[in-house]
Design goal:
This protein is an alpha/beta fold. It folds into three domains: about 70 residues; about 270 residues, 3-Layer(aba) Sandwich (Aspartate Aminotransferase, domain 2), CATH 3.40.640; about 130 residues, Aspartate Aminotransferase, domain 1, CATH 3.90.1150.170. Helix content is about 45%, strand content about 10%. It contains 19 helices and eleven strands. A seven-stranded mixed beta sheet has the order 1-7-6-5-4-2-3, with helices on both faces. Strands 8-9-11-10 form a four-stranded antiparallel beta sheet. Helix 2 runs parallel beside helix 4, helix 7 packs across helix 9 and helix 7 packs across helix 14. The longest helix is centred in the C-terminal third of the chain and has 24 residues.
Length: about 525
């Protein structure tokens, strides 16, 4: 009878000769300095060529999705490409199938041009390949990042307890700021108990606030309906009287308000909420004041424009994006808080697999304990090197120049018989306008005419983008489709503003000649 249950085979001892045989090195991925130098020379040559050719290139290509895919996508090879094939692939990506956000005619969205020192710094950061989550793994990187956070905080007028660090972008910075707000103002052990530990929490943002704040509320478990939308005034700024009424109503109905998101530079028009008055409301109700300065925060750092942001120094947290108006390469946001301890309170954890003898290694700050990410790249280096290479006065001058260019655009639009501003005049470096044919100027406001103008200007934006000289985006303000130019590009100058106006007029007139039949009048 065979025994029941599993049988066990005795492990055979390793052959002594096999065990002692040398293990051959595998060096396929380990490029030596000469090979790196050769590729680096080709890459730098391509970089310089792109910079030389950029002003004369179209801002964006006209290739279809299928054409782009066919040009740049290929099967992953089993064997390496030859060096010349590798460089050819890079050239195709860089010179044929990109949208050039550094082009002087690129005025869409809010995308900086990307500094040359920042790009070089990104290469070194990648070569170092450090995890800036732990001080011990990235000592210089951590100290530079923390220094930048303190410097930004001081420029904003925050106290000595303030500081911050670099994030992947404005969305992550908003999440971090609102996570700190939730945990600091909930009034119970929300990190342990979650939102079930007390009444429903509410946040407040204007009708012009960016969607990242609603996304943050969703990610924090508050739900999107927790974000109360506060109406704006005629300048598209949050109405403080409406904020007060909204907070009072929620308190009466058993909700617990925790934070107000004040916008310092809205995405559509660059409007700045009345920060000082909002800070008063926050102080009265013990609310956390988070400032979304993803766009305008860089301007608040400057001496000339800081008065427009009066009250930002009273914020509990400020988010802004150096990859927008500090012109650094993507991506890099910043979160600054009034008291760094609030970040530790919101995020600190001590996992068992992270051990360090602080008596031996010192007392450096581990950034993984101040935010959601354990793995963090050296994103601060491109910001730091850009500041060192240019000096702060260059940023002061260029940001002021961008504002002046937006004002020039607005003035040219006002002077045109077929263009009109949409929304308030520029507060920062965004100007919105639309093309209105002469025969429709007296019909503005009529439903049929407005529908036609919206369709006409949407088509106009697309044609301008496809034309290759200028690249605006759009905003919809009070139901009106507008062309929107945001100047956060250090290569943009007056000639580019004039080209946008001239092409908008010429292209608008050509489109109207072919589209006017749809209006019902010849």
């Amino acid at each position: 009878m065979q025994p029941s249950g599993p049988t066990h085979t005795r492990a055979r001892p390793h052959d002594a000769a096999t065990a002692s045989a040398p293990l051959a090195p595998v060096t396929d991925l380990a490029w030596d300095a000469d090979r790196a130098r050769a590729l680096g020379a080709e890459v730098v040559a391509l970089w310089a060529e792109l910079l030389e050719r950029l002003p004369a290139m179209p801002v964006a290509g006209r290739a279809s999705v299928a054409d782009v895919r066919a040009a740049v996508v290929r099967a992953v090879p089993e064997e390496p490409l030859a060096p010349e094939e590798l460089v050819a692939a890079l050239r195709t990506i860089a010179l044929e199938h990109a949208t050039y956000t550094g082009h002087p005619g690129f005025m869409a969205y809010i995308t900086g041009a990307g500094t040359v020192p920042g790009a070089a710094a990104d290469l070194i950061a990648a070569v170092l390949n450090q995890n800036v989550g732990a001080w011990r793994l990235a000592p210089a990187a951590t100290e530079i990042e923390l220094h930048l956070g303190r410097w930004f905080a001081s420029r904003l007028g925050l106290p000595s307890t303030a500081g911050g660090y670099v994030t992947s972008g404005g969305a992550m910075a908003a999440f971090i700021g609102l996570k700190a707000a939730r945990d600091a103002r909930a009034g119970w052990r929300i990190r342990e108990l979650g939102t079930r530990g007390g009444p429903p929490l509410t946040l407040y943002a204007s009708s012009q606030a960016h969607d990242v704040n609603t996304r943050a509320a969703d990610m924090l478990g508050l739900g999107r309906e927790a974000v109360r939308v506060v109406p704006c005034d005629g300048e598209l700024r949050m109405r403080v009287d409406a904020l007060r009424a909204c907070v009072a109503r929620d308190v009466r109905n058993g909700y617990q308000p925790v934070a107000v998101v004040a916008t310092a530079g809205t995405v559509s028009t660059g409007a700045i909420d009345p920060l000082d008055a909002i800070a008063d409301v926050c102080a009265e109700h013990r609310l956390w004041m988070h400032v979304d300065g993803a766009y305008g925060g860089a301007a608040a750092l400057t001496d000339a424009l800081r008065p427009r942001f009066r009250g930002i120094e009273r914020a509990d947290s400020v988010a802004f994006d150096p990859h927008k108006w500090l012109y650094t390469p993507h991506s890099g946001g910043v979160i600054v808080v009034r008291d760094m301890q609030t970040l530790a309170d919101a995020f600190s954890m001590e996992p068992s697999y992270v051990y360090e003898d602080k008596e031996l290694t010192g007392r450096g700050v581990d950034l993984y304990g101040l935010g959601p990410q354990f793995s963090r790249g050296f994103q601060a280096l491109k910001i730091w090197m850009s500041l060192l290479a240019h000096g702060w006065s260059a940023y002061e001058r260029r940001i002021a120049h961008d504002v002046a260019l937006a004002r020039r655009l607005h003035d040219r639009v006002v002077a045109s018989p077929v263009l009109e501003p949409v929304g308030p005049p520029p507060t920062l470096s965004i100007a919105c306008f639309r093309y209105v044919p002469r025969e429709l100027r007296d019909r503005r406001g009529e439903a049929q005419a407005e529908d036609y103008l919206n369709r006409l200007n949407a088509r106009l934006m697309t044609e301008l983008q496809l034309g290759g000289r200028v690249f605006p985006s759009n905003a919809v303000i009070d139901g009106r489709f507008a062309l929107r130019a945001c100047i956060v590009n250090f290569r943009t100058e007056a000639a580019d503003i004039d080209a946008l106006v001239d092409q908008a007029v010429a292209t608008g007139e050509a489109l109207h000649r072919t589209e006017r039949a749809s209006l019902g009048t010849a």
